[in-house]
Design brief:
The complex is a heterodimer of chains A (111) and B (116).
Chain A: E1 9-13, E2 18-23, E3 31-38, E4 45-50, E5 55-56, E6 61-64, E7 70-75, E8 84-92, E9 105-110
Parallel strand pairs in A: 1-9
Antiparallel strand pairs in A: 2-7, 3-4, 3-8, 5-6, 6-7, 8-9
Chain B: E1 5-7, E2 10-13, E3 19-24, E4 31-37, E5 43-50, E6 53-57, E7 64-68, E8 74-78, E9 87-94, E10 106-107, E11 111-115
Parallel strand pairs in B: 2-11
Antiparallel strand pairs in B: 1-3, 3-8, 4-5, 4-9, 5-6, 7-8, 9-10, 9-11
The chains are: A mainly beta (111), B mainly beta (116).
Amino acid sequence: DAKTTQPPSMDCAEGRAANLPCNHSTISGNEYVYWYRQIHSQGPQYIIHGLKNNETNEMASLIITEDRKSSTLILPHATLRDTAVYYCIVMIYNQGGKLIFGQGTELSVKP
Amino acid sequence: EAGVTQSPTHLIKTRGQQATLRCSPISGHTSVYWYQQALGLGLQFLLWYDEGEERNRGNFPPRFSGRQFPNYSSELNVNALELEDSALYLCASSLLAGGSAVGELFFGEGSRLTVL
Protein backbone atom coordinates (compact mmCIF):
# COMPACT_ATOMS: atom_id res chain seq x y z
CA ASP A 1 0.00 0.00 0.00
CA ALA A 2 1.16 3.50 -0.75
CA LYS A 3 1.94 5.58 2.29
CA THR A 4 0.71 9.07 2.98
CA THR A 5 2.30 12.07 4.66
CA GLN A 6 0.24 14.69 6.45
CA PRO A 7 1.17 17.61 8.70
CA PRO A 8 0.58 16.63 12.33
CA SER A 9 -1.53 19.67 13.14
CA MET A 10 -3.19 22.72 11.63
CA ASP A 11 -5.27 25.63 12.86
CA CYS A 12 -8.13 27.30 11.04
CA ALA A 13 -10.36 30.25 11.90
CA GLU A 14 -14.05 29.53 12.16
CA GLY A 15 -15.86 30.37 8.94
CA ARG A 16 -12.73 30.19 6.82
CA ALA A 17 -11.78 27.41 4.45
CA ALA A 18 -9.63 24.64 5.89
CA ASN A 19 -7.18 23.17 3.39
CA LEU A 20 -5.63 19.91 4.53
CA PRO A 21 -2.75 18.61 2.39
CA CYS A 22 -1.67 15.02 1.86
CA ASN A 23 1.32 13.63 0.00
CA HIS A 24 1.11 10.18 -1.55
CA SER A 25 4.03 10.22 -3.97
CA THR A 26 4.14 6.43 -4.37
CA ILE A 27 0.47 6.01 -5.20
CA SER A 28 -0.21 3.53 -7.97
CA GLY A 29 -2.69 3.85 -10.79
CA ASN A 30 -5.39 1.72 -9.19
CA GLU A 31 -5.28 3.29 -5.75
CA TYR A 32 -7.98 5.65 -4.57
CA VAL A 33 -7.53 8.52 -2.12
CA TYR A 34 -9.91 8.49 0.84
CA TRP A 35 -10.45 10.95 3.63
CA TYR A 36 -11.88 10.11 7.04
CA ARG A 37 -12.05 12.13 10.21
CA GLN A 38 -12.25 11.20 13.86
CA ILE A 39 -13.76 13.53 16.36
CA HIS A 40 -12.44 12.92 19.86
CA SER A 41 -13.63 9.62 21.36
CA GLN A 42 -15.87 8.82 18.40
CA GLY A 43 -15.56 6.35 15.55
CA PRO A 44 -14.03 7.61 12.29
CA GLN A 45 -16.37 9.16 9.77
CA TYR A 46 -16.05 8.84 6.00
CA ILE A 47 -15.73 12.20 4.22
CA ILE A 48 -14.91 11.74 0.56
CA HIS A 49 -12.84 9.74 -1.90
CA GLY A 50 -11.49 10.07 -5.43
CA LEU A 51 -9.28 8.49 -8.07
CA LYS A 52 -8.04 11.23 -10.37
CA ASN A 53 -10.78 13.79 -10.79
CA ASN A 54 -11.70 16.44 -8.26
CA GLU A 55 -14.68 15.49 -6.14
CA THR A 56 -17.20 17.45 -4.10
CA ASN A 57 -19.95 16.43 -1.74
CA GLU A 58 -21.96 18.08 0.99
CA MET A 59 -19.09 17.86 3.45
CA ALA A 60 -15.97 18.73 1.49
CA SER A 61 -14.07 18.96 -1.76
CA LEU A 62 -11.13 16.81 -2.77
CA ILE A 63 -8.52 18.20 -5.12
CA ILE A 64 -6.07 15.66 -6.59
CA THR A 65 -3.05 16.89 -8.54
CA GLU A 66 -2.66 15.80 -12.12
CA ASP A 67 0.25 13.50 -11.27
CA ARG A 68 -1.80 12.13 -8.34
CA LYS A 69 1.14 12.49 -5.97
CA SER A 70 -0.71 14.79 -3.63
CA SER A 71 -4.19 15.90 -2.72
CA THR A 72 -5.97 18.53 -0.65
CA LEU A 73 -9.14 18.19 1.36
CA ILE A 74 -11.07 21.43 1.53
CA LEU A 75 -13.68 22.21 4.17
CA PRO A 76 -15.18 25.37 2.65
CA HIS A 77 -16.53 26.99 5.81
CA ALA A 78 -14.99 25.37 8.86
CA THR A 79 -16.98 25.29 12.08
CA LEU A 80 -15.96 24.42 15.62
CA ARG A 81 -17.53 21.00 15.10
CA ASP A 82 -14.98 20.28 12.36
CA THR A 83 -12.23 20.08 14.99
CA ALA A 84 -10.97 16.52 14.57
CA VAL A 85 -8.14 14.33 13.33
CA TYR A 86 -8.29 14.00 9.55
CA TYR A 87 -6.87 10.91 7.89
CA CYS A 88 -5.77 10.65 4.28
CA ILE A 89 -5.66 7.04 3.10
CA VAL A 90 -4.87 5.36 -0.19
CA MET A 91 -6.33 1.99 -1.02
CA ILE A 92 -6.59 -0.33 -3.96
CA TYR A 93 -10.13 -0.79 -5.19
CA ASN A 94 -11.91 -3.62 -3.45
CA GLN A 95 -9.06 -4.46 -1.11
CA GLY A 96 -11.50 -5.40 1.55
CA GLY A 97 -11.59 -2.59 4.03
CA LYS A 98 -7.98 -2.84 5.05
CA LEU A 99 -7.69 0.89 5.35
CA ILE A 100 -4.24 1.84 6.59
CA PHE A 101 -4.65 4.85 8.87
CA GLY A 102 -1.60 7.04 9.39
CA GLN A 103 -1.23 9.59 12.16
CA GLY A 104 -3.45 12.11 10.41
CA THR A 105 -3.70 15.88 10.81
CA GLU A 106 -5.21 17.29 13.97
CA LEU A 107 -7.29 20.24 12.80
CA SER A 108 -8.23 22.84 15.41
CA VAL A 109 -10.93 25.29 14.35
CA LYS A 110 -10.75 28.38 16.51
CA PRO A 111 -13.41 31.07 17.05
CA GLU B 1 -31.72 3.73 10.38
CA ALA B 2 -29.55 2.41 13.19
CA GLY B 3 -25.81 2.71 12.76
CA VAL B 4 -23.13 0.25 13.76
CA THR B 5 -23.61 -0.69 17.40
CA GLN B 6 -20.96 -2.09 19.70
CA SER B 7 -21.10 -3.58 23.17
CA PRO B 8 -20.01 -3.24 25.82
CA THR B 9 -19.07 0.42 25.79
CA HIS B 10 -16.47 -0.18 28.48
CA LEU B 11 -14.88 -3.37 29.74
CA ILE B 12 -12.34 -3.88 32.50
CA LYS B 13 -10.37 -7.11 32.70
CA THR B 14 -7.22 -8.34 34.37
CA ARG B 15 -4.14 -9.82 32.75
CA GLY B 16 -4.62 -13.36 31.51
CA GLN B 17 -8.40 -13.10 31.23
CA GLN B 18 -10.43 -13.22 28.04
CA ALA B 19 -12.47 -10.40 26.56
CA THR B 20 -15.36 -10.64 24.12
CA LEU B 21 -16.56 -7.62 22.19
CA ARG B 22 -19.64 -7.54 20.02
CA CYS B 23 -20.68 -5.63 16.93
CA SER B 24 -23.93 -5.30 15.02
CA PRO B 25 -23.51 -3.89 11.51
CA ILE B 26 -25.87 -1.59 9.71
CA SER B 27 -28.85 -3.53 8.43
CA GLY B 28 -28.03 -5.02 5.04
CA HIS B 29 -24.27 -4.72 5.44
CA THR B 30 -22.43 -8.00 5.03
CA SER B 31 -18.85 -6.97 5.77
CA VAL B 32 -17.55 -6.28 9.27
CA TYR B 33 -14.13 -4.90 10.15
CA TRP B 34 -12.31 -4.62 13.46
CA TYR B 35 -9.69 -2.01 14.33
CA GLN B 36 -7.64 -1.36 17.44
CA GLN B 37 -6.76 2.15 18.57
CA ALA B 38 -4.36 2.20 21.48
CA LEU B 39 -3.79 5.46 23.35
CA GLY B 40 -1.54 7.74 21.36
CA LEU B 41 -1.44 5.39 18.40
CA GLY B 42 -3.35 5.30 15.15
CA LEU B 43 -6.00 2.85 14.08
CA GLN B 44 -4.59 -0.60 13.42
CA PHE B 45 -6.48 -3.01 11.17
CA LEU B 46 -7.33 -6.25 12.97
CA LEU B 47 -9.80 -8.38 11.03
CA TRP B 48 -12.23 -8.33 8.13
CA TYR B 49 -15.22 -10.69 7.88
CA ASP B 50 -17.56 -11.03 4.96
CA GLU B 51 -20.41 -13.50 4.53
CA GLY B 52 -19.27 -15.39 7.62
CA GLU B 53 -15.69 -15.89 6.45
CA GLU B 54 -12.46 -14.26 7.63
CA ARG B 55 -11.17 -12.42 4.54
CA ASN B 56 -8.16 -10.56 5.84
CA ARG B 57 -6.16 -10.22 9.00
CA GLY B 58 -3.82 -7.59 10.34
CA ASN B 59 -0.49 -8.11 12.05
CA PHE B 60 -1.84 -9.34 15.39
CA PRO B 61 -1.10 -12.54 17.33
CA PRO B 62 -3.49 -15.51 17.13
CA ARG B 63 -4.96 -14.72 20.55
CA PHE B 64 -6.95 -12.07 18.70
CA SER B 65 -9.75 -13.92 16.95
CA GLY B 66 -13.32 -13.44 15.96
CA ARG B 67 -16.24 -14.68 14.00
CA GLN B 68 -19.21 -13.48 12.03
CA PHE B 69 -22.65 -14.92 12.60
CA PRO B 70 -25.34 -15.71 9.99
CA ASN B 71 -27.06 -12.41 10.81
CA TYR B 72 -23.73 -10.66 9.98
CA SER B 73 -23.09 -9.55 13.53
CA SER B 74 -19.60 -10.23 14.78
CA GLU B 75 -17.62 -10.73 17.91
CA LEU B 76 -13.97 -10.17 18.66
CA ASN B 77 -12.25 -12.36 21.23
CA VAL B 78 -8.98 -11.49 22.89
CA ASN B 79 -7.45 -14.31 24.91
CA ALA B 80 -4.69 -14.17 27.51
CA LEU B 81 -5.07 -10.42 27.89
CA GLU B 82 -1.95 -8.32 28.22
CA LEU B 83 -1.63 -4.78 29.52
CA GLU B 84 -0.88 -3.46 26.04
CA ASP B 85 -4.23 -4.75 24.81
CA SER B 86 -5.84 -1.79 26.54
CA ALA B 87 -7.34 0.19 23.69
CA LEU B 88 -10.45 1.38 21.93
CA TYR B 89 -11.73 -1.38 19.66
CA LEU B 90 -13.69 -0.11 16.70
CA CYS B 91 -16.02 -2.06 14.49
CA ALA B 92 -17.05 -0.93 11.02
CA SER B 93 -19.37 -2.31 8.40
CA SER B 94 -19.90 -1.94 4.69
CA LEU B 95 -22.44 -3.14 2.19
CA LEU B 96 -20.17 -5.07 -0.10
CA ALA B 97 -16.79 -6.71 0.25
CA GLY B 98 -14.31 -3.90 -0.17
CA GLY B 99 -16.76 -1.21 0.78
CA SER B 100 -20.13 -0.01 -0.33
CA ALA B 101 -18.68 2.96 -2.15
CA VAL B 102 -15.18 1.75 -2.84
CA GLY B 103 -13.96 1.81 0.72
CA GLU B 104 -16.70 3.67 2.54
CA LEU B 105 -16.80 2.15 6.00
CA PHE B 106 -19.31 3.05 8.68
CA PHE B 107 -17.80 2.92 12.15
CA GLY B 108 -19.36 2.33 15.54
CA GLU B 109 -18.44 4.29 18.63
CA GLY B 110 -16.14 1.58 19.92
CA SER B 111 -15.60 -0.55 22.99
CA ARG B 112 -12.94 0.62 25.41
CA LEU B 113 -11.05 -2.27 26.93
CA THR B 114 -8.91 -1.68 29.99
CA VAL B 115 -6.57 -4.42 31.14
CA LEU B 116 -5.31 -4.13 34.71
